[in-house]
Amino acid sequence: MEVVVKGLPNDTDEFSLQNFFGQCGEITRVSLPRGKDGCLKGAAFVGFVTQEGLNKALELNSSFFNNFCISVRLASDKIERGGKKSNDEMTVVMRDFPFEGVDEAMINDYFKTCGEVVRVNLPRHKEDGRIKGAAFIEFMREEDVETALLLNGSEFMGEIITVRKASDREKGGGKGSRREREDAVTIVVKGFPTESTDEELLRSTFAAVAQVVRVNLPRGADGLPKGTAFIQMGTDEDVARACELDNSPFMNATLSVHRASDKSKRARRARIRARANGEATGSEGRSPVDSSAKPVPPKPVARVVPFSRSATQCPPQS
Questions:
Q1: What is the DSSP letter of 197?
Q2: Which of 10, 138, 144, 260 is the most exposed place for a label (fewest CB within 10 A)?
Q3: Quick one: how far is CA 60 from the chain centroid?
Q4: How many angstroms from the chain centroid is the CA of residue 170?
């Protein structure tokens, strides 16, 4: 009678894990498989004497161990689930989020408004603990996954995030995929009063002008809407009609309505402009001073320096 535990931090040891699960009942063994480098392979196994202890351990699924959201399942489930279906169908992948200051607990809080989160996996580099670039959020129900997918193009800690189904990676997740088609018919709504707005009110408002498929209204820890709603419409024509409600009055407020894909494009363009701010300033300045001799020298110098650096660095690397 064993459980398999995933999502553990790399510095976990047998003693701390035994203390954590010891509250459930008598433990027969704790196994922490490690690679040649001494780092955890990704899962731990904890055995129990009684079924009662095993059941209590399973209740710790989605709990936090040293600030990491862990997954606890029957070890036998891993074998039984080894068919065509995988957890990818119940998991979404989040990208484009800020790496600094982000942990599993923060991601869990953000996505738990969509439904019951089974686990959050935030892969890190073994060498320095830096986040690799993606977070995996597994849900209990399929409808929760669909709700989470509506957060694609939403804002998380000041960045516009990308949310896709984990299984889309195997299918390419490219143009023409179901996810892309859904994004094309999703609108982002802001400007509504958070204290008096709910999903049904938004649904009825937009259903009056077009077909509404689903409404996602992310909420904060206080239960109030965060201020942004994601509404999937039936067709592109429905999106166009819904967007006509942009700048319309709504309960003593003014709605902001636009396509979710438009927001993502604007955010990406803004990030590109911010990163290339110096270069953009130079390009704006070249036109009026094109005939001047002073702006010309910095341009070739800026291009030459990187090539000279790479030339000096290549020999030592080889």
A1: -
A2: 10
A3: 23
A4: 18
